[in-house]
Amino acid sequence: MNVEKIIKTEKEIPLESRTLIHFMLVNNKIIEVFSSVLKPFDVSLQQFNVLRILRGQKGRPANLSTLNERMVTKMSNTTRLVDKLIVKGFVCRITCPSNRRKVEITITPEGKKVLKQIDEQISKAEKNILKNLTPKELEQLNNLFNKF
User: Fold this and answer.
1) How many angstroms separate the CA atoms of 126 and 3, rounded?
2) For the chain, how big is the Rg over CA atoms in Å?
3) For the residues 28-44, what does the mean pLDDT come to?
4) Pairwise CA distance, residues 51 & 49, whole Å
5) Which of 47, 64, 73, 126 has the largest count of CB atoms under 10 Å?
6) CA-to-CA separations, 78 to 6, 42, 93, 117, 137, in angstroms, rounded
7) pTM of the model
8) Span 42-70, pLDDT tens digits
9) CATH of domain 44-115
10) Where in the chain is the domain with CATH 1.10.10.10?
11) Closest by alpha carbon to 58, among 114, 107, 10?
């Protein structure tokens, strides 16, 4: 991926700027691919993330704070994401009878079912995105990312 070519400039971009532009371009490409995989399921990338977090709870309910802490993309509209997933039948929300401020959120069987279908498609997309990198290169890349 030649940054200068992509952004159509003949001027050489300084290394630091080129590196950060590269990050943004790669990030945008990954989001584009994942979004297209999720589109047939009518699920956004953030909703997919919520479903995966809830599945990872292994039947234990989560609250909005837990979801927010574990989200890959931190956001303040987790309530709205959960509301949309409730409408789709993928999650349910229960207000704790003893503490009405406490809300428990769990994934439904339908949510687990659709998530399994999504997982298969996401796995294919991940392999396709990373097909030009060897396992050793992936390890190196992850080690470099860890420096951030």
Assistant:
1) 22
2) 19
3) 96
4) 5
5) 47
6) 34, 17, 13, 23, 35
7) 0.85
8) 999 999 999 999 999 998 999 988 899 89
9) 1.10.10.10
10) 44-115
11) 107
